[in-house]
Amino acid sequence: MAIDKKSQKFLEEYLNNASPTGFEFSGQKIWLDYLKPFVDSYFTDTYGTAVGVVNPEAKYKVVIEAHADEISWFVNYITDEGYLYVCRNGGSDQQIAPSKRVNIHTKKGIVKGVFGWPAIHVREKENEPVPTLKNIFIDCGCNSKEEVEKLGIHVGCVITYEDEFMELNKRYWMGRALDNRIGGFMIAEVAKRLHGKKKKLPFGLYVVNAVQEEIGLRGAEMIARRIKPDVAIITDVCHDTHSPMYDQKVSGNQKSGLGPVLTYGPAVHNNVLDMLIATAEKKKIPFQRAAASRQTGYGYRCIRLF
């Protein structure tokens, strides 16, 4: 999908900004500031889900939705020597943590740190240690608990990786929290293009950027009960199963660059799915298919609640 320079700038700023689950405010502000010129009205709920509305007076309500939050860590324990032990905020993977640089978010600002790990030449080869929540730790350059606390770090401070936007071979985008800020970007672009083409909709369109997906779809549930839409189309990421170590017989057959993936399953409304497929075929838009025996990850509860 070709995008203009303003959209690209927004996407990079949006991806580079840290918006961990429960702390999405700054990212929601970036998203809503970009969206405002393209919608008739907007609002946020108590927990921070942001919504832009086109044609708000219409009785029939259609939601297009993504989630705004990213996985992260919490400071869980500070040792007397000044090391930080963590717990998850969402589904953070401890396997990739060692040697990753992090930003520790405090009331005094960002404090830099790094996940430590013993050097290869001091580890036992017969009993190679595996990263777990019990042994990964962060070094922020302090020699004592008191020194850590003077930096503003305390139990409950949220921690994000330092990773930022990067383009690979002028073809792929890489960045922290593409899951699912790429969805937030796409739904904002829908509103932008409708506005640019001066499209008049026969329904109310609610462009929803929900919080707290990574801990159980909490924001989607709250905003669904408020909007009470008639239909919802949920966007989220999936996996390129042509990457190494995937089993396509288990994970399905999806490949980057071949179009969006539409999911079949008992939680998906067949009429909506058929409409999307018919439109794609008519417009010659490539797409891929996936199947889910029960839930479809993020879309499952959203569609069921809506």
Q: Got a strand count?
A: 15
Number of domains: 2
Q: Name the CATH class of the largest domain.
A: Alpha Beta
Q: What number is the mean pLDDT?
A: 92
Query: What is the fold named in CATH at topology level of the largest domain?
Result: Aminopeptidase
Query: In percent, how much strand structure appears in the residues?
Result: 15-25%
| CATH-assigned homologous superfamily of the largest domain | Zn peptidases
User: From the helix content, strand content and strand pairing, which structural class follows?
Assistant: alpha+beta
Order of secondary-structure elements: HHEEEEEEEEHEEEHEHEHEHEH
Strand order of the largest sheet: 4-5-8-7-6-9
**Gyration radius, in Å:** 21 Å
Low-confidence stretches: 298-306
Describe the protein's architecture and organization.
The protein folds into 2 domains: 5-70 and 166-305, Zn peptidases (Aminopeptidase, 3-Layer(aba) Sandwich); 72-161, Elongation Factor Tu (Ef-tu), domain 3 (Beta Barrel), CATH 2.40.30.40. The protein is 27% helix and 25% strand. It contains 8 helices and 15 strands. The strands form 4 sheets. It has a 6-stranded antiparallel barrel with strand order 4-5-8-7-6-9. Strands 1-2-12-3-13 form a 5-stranded mixed beta sheet, with helices on both faces. A two-stranded antiparallel sheet has the order 10-11. Mean pLDDT is 92; it is low at 298-306.
